[in-house]
Amino acid sequence: MLSWGFFPVCLLLACTEPPxxxxxxxxxxxxRINLYEQGSPEIYQTLFSRLREIELTMSVTKADTTVDxxxxxxxxxxxxxPPDLMEVLEQALKYAALSEGAxxxxxxxxxxxxxxxxxxPRIPDAFEIEETLSLVNWRDLVIDRKAATAFLRRSGMALxxxxxxxxxxxxxxxxxxxxxxxxGAVIDLGGNIFAYGTKxxxxxxxxxxxxxxxxxxxxxxxxxxxxxxxxxxxxxRYAEIEGKRYHHILSTQNxxxxxxxxxxxxxxxxxxxxxxxxxxxxxxxxYEKGRALVESLDQVEAIxxxxxxxxxxxxxxxxxFTLRDSQFSLP
Length: 331
Ligand code: ADP
Ligand code: MG
Description:
With 331 residues, the protein is an alpha+beta fold. Helix content is 31%, strand content 25%. The strands form 4 sheets. It has a 9-stranded antiparallel β-sheet. A 3-stranded antiparallel β-sheet has the order 4-6-5, covered by helices on one side. The structure holds adenosine-5'-diphosphate and magnesium ion (MG). Magnesium ion binds at residues 163, 230, 232, 276-277, 279-280.
């Protein structure tokens, strides 16, 4: 298995915190968890083995995961599904319905066609896009809770849970911490963050990435307690082809990377699965529809960052957010 093994998170974070954290390459990204004073080898072991277990069920890049088996049996037969994956599939279908398919867990064939984030990305032609789009439809994902199976109705269909599985995984980390009585931790699964509990009774301060800069530069700070913060944007994963940038969130309408004048959408929510699915959904929907979706839900806040450097926040997000970069403007 591809893994960087365990090493102190401080090596990666240019050490401003005590070195109790752990990081590992899992779920296709660097996952860092920092329990500060409460960290022990045993609890990190429990956390990271659960992450690897989730990867073995839900990854599309690893062979013989349950998701891989569902994909291989598309159009053939239903596949037995463990309870955790069933939960994620149910939630994915919920967000597909809420976003009218802008978020779609059956986006797999389109993701494979573009291959953004792989070594060989390419711009497909119009015919390929049309043909592939016809294989993307969440309504053809059939889950049977009683029989504990999942089935893709048509051959060639494929699940891709890249927009929701890390959120689920972060919630699983939070649950392990809760059961262990840990009061505070920062869970960072490749930018999918859960600011768990408090920082010794104080809010956590979480940097919001400047979507125009390389990873690590913040444009502002969010002060929150026990919230997940997840961003979807043009910078997370992209390919440069013939001098143009193509990012990795694809439109189920036209088959191209979505472009609505947004650089990123950050969602702040109690559950990381919700924040993860909604950040992708809102980014795919664009500002007006994305904001309407967020506002239709309880306890979900959002920060929208536009290509023209304007920022729009829902009211609670505005209270928690401090802008630090004068290139950007808040109303
Ligand atoms: P990240 O994975 O960088 O945290 P997201 O949560 O927004 O970002 O997920 C993007 C990933 O989700 C893509 O890499 C792809 O695997 C998948 N995806 C792309 N477009 C969509 C879409 N419209 N609906 C659901 N999943 C998508
Ligand atoms: Mg997401």
